[in-house]
TrEMBL record:
Keyword Transport: no
UniProt record similarity statement: Belongs to the zinc-containing alcohol dehydrogenase family.
Segments forming domain Enoyl reductase (ER): 10-344
Protein name, UniProt field: Zinc-dependent alcohol dehydrogenase family protein
The keyword Oxidoreductase belongs to this UniProt entry's keyword annotation: yes
Any coiled-coil regions, as ranges: none
Required cofactor names: Zn(2+)
Pfam annotation, one family: ADH_N
Key words of the record: Metal-binding, Oxidoreductase, Zinc
Domain of life the protein comes from: Bacteria
């Protein structure tokens, strides 16, 4: 088969590789019908993430059709149309029993495309298939389902639920990339009074408006709005969700929330933010962080099927699977291309 392979920092190649086969009784082989690229793939590709072997197949977001299952797989069978979760976990260990799949100690907890081969290929081996594959209802398109492989559970679990977004809240989402936009979409499930998006890029602020933000501001403008009084009683936002991954945006979040407010960090930080505990403690702030678990995927799928959740127009560019190289160029340069999510489809 063909697959997009890692060839050392910054180098990738769509190349012929051996077809995957089950190596464990709980494996399934999935024919990839659609796949996307995530910012994390760029981190892996650039060599920022340790332990990526040369030849590793990249990618952790896909929708496909099961073609083969090991003898231990019970919940999916050949022919099933499935969503492949970005995290593959055993489902049985102490962490998995708490739905913390990202912390699995039973031999999983991987993001596909890092220590095991990923989804940017014609076929993918999915370990712990019962826990990592989700059968798709007929009414959900491949393109909508793709958004549930990573960015919707990430934003919902690490942003919205950790930040305890509630009815009537004022919610600020800093960063309106795919993850920030998915945060806006999933925050709305809890009926906040208002959602304010913050981004440096005007194109991303416009996308935030389309995703359902009530207003979209630059970082300077949101600081001015905060000085004038944000939220129900002017004391600040109830929740600020960081979806960039920079010290300055994390620190901005801590300034925007009211006393007793919540800051939910979603961004992956390469440089450390300074936690000004001398200021944060006296304002009773709650700060949370986390890696996506994907334990919310069945619930999000139900809401998508019921029409309660929209994945909006996150996919801006579509290619064939064999055009993966070109798709990466488009995705890696959003200022030039206007890309949000770039999706690949089997033709
Ligand atoms: P992205 O790069 O597409 O989006 C980031 C956005 O932040 C961009 O729109 C950019 O214009 C904006 N931005 C940059 N600097 C800014 C600043 N100073 N002020 C305001 N806006 C600024 O990234 P994404 O794919 O949406 O992902 C967002 C973050 O979430 C990344 O750090 C990613 O690694 C992380 N992530 C975390 C998890 C998790 O499990 N916690 C999972 C997936 C992604
Ligand atoms: Zn991802």
């Amino acid at each position: 088969m063909k697959a997009l392979t890692y060839r050392g920092p910054g180098r990738r190649l769509w190349a012929e590789v051996p077809d995957p086969a089950p190596t464990d009784p709980e494996d399934a082989i999935v024919r990839v019908d659609a796949a996307t690229i995530c910012g994390t793939d760029l981190h892996i590709l650039h060599g920022d993430v340790p332990e990526v072997a040369e030849g590793r197949i990249l990618g952790h977001e896909a929708v496909g059709t099961v073609v083969e299952t090991g003898p231990g797989v019970r919940t999916v069978a050949a022919g099933d149309r499935v969503l492949v979760s970005c995290i593959s976990a055993c489902g049985r260990c102490a962490s998995c029993r708490e739905a913390a799949y990202g912390q699995c100690t039973g031999g999983g907890g991987w993001i596909l495309g890092h220590l095991v081969d990923g989804t940017q290929a014609e076929f993918v081996r999915t370990p712990f298939a019962d826990n990592s594959l989700h059968r798709l209802p007929a009414g959900i398109t491949d393109e909508a389902a793709l958004m549930l492989a990573d960015i919707l559970p990430t934003s919902f679990e690490v942003g919205v639920r950790n930040g305890r977004v509630g009815p009537g809240d004022t919610v600020v989402v800093v960063g309106a990339g795919p993850v920030g936009l998915a945060t806006i979409a999933t925050a709305r499930l809890y009926s906040p009074a208002r959602i304010i998006a913050v981004d440096l890029a005007e194109s991303r602020r416009k996308a935030a408006g389309r995703a359902g933000a009530d207003s979209a501001l630059s970082p300077d403008d949101v600081e001015r709005a905060a000085a004038d009084g944000l939220g129900r009683d002017g004391r600040g936002a109830d929740v600020a969700i960081e979806a960039v991954g920079l010290p300055e945006t994390f620190e901005l979040c801590t300034r925007l929330v009211r006393p007793g407010g919540r800051v939910a960090n979603v961004g992956v930080h390469g440089r450390s933010a300074t936690l000004h505990l001398e200021d944060l403690w006296i304002r009773n702030l709650t700060i949370t962080t986390g890696l996506v678990d994907t334990s919310s995927t069945p619930l999000l799928l139900d809401m998508l099927a019921a029409g309660r959740l929209s994945t909006g127009d996150l996919v801006t560019h579509r290619f064939g699977l064999d055009e993966m190289q070109d798709g990466y160029d488009v995705f890696a340069d959003p200022a030039r291309t206007g890309a949000l999510k770039v999706a690949f489809f089997r033709t």
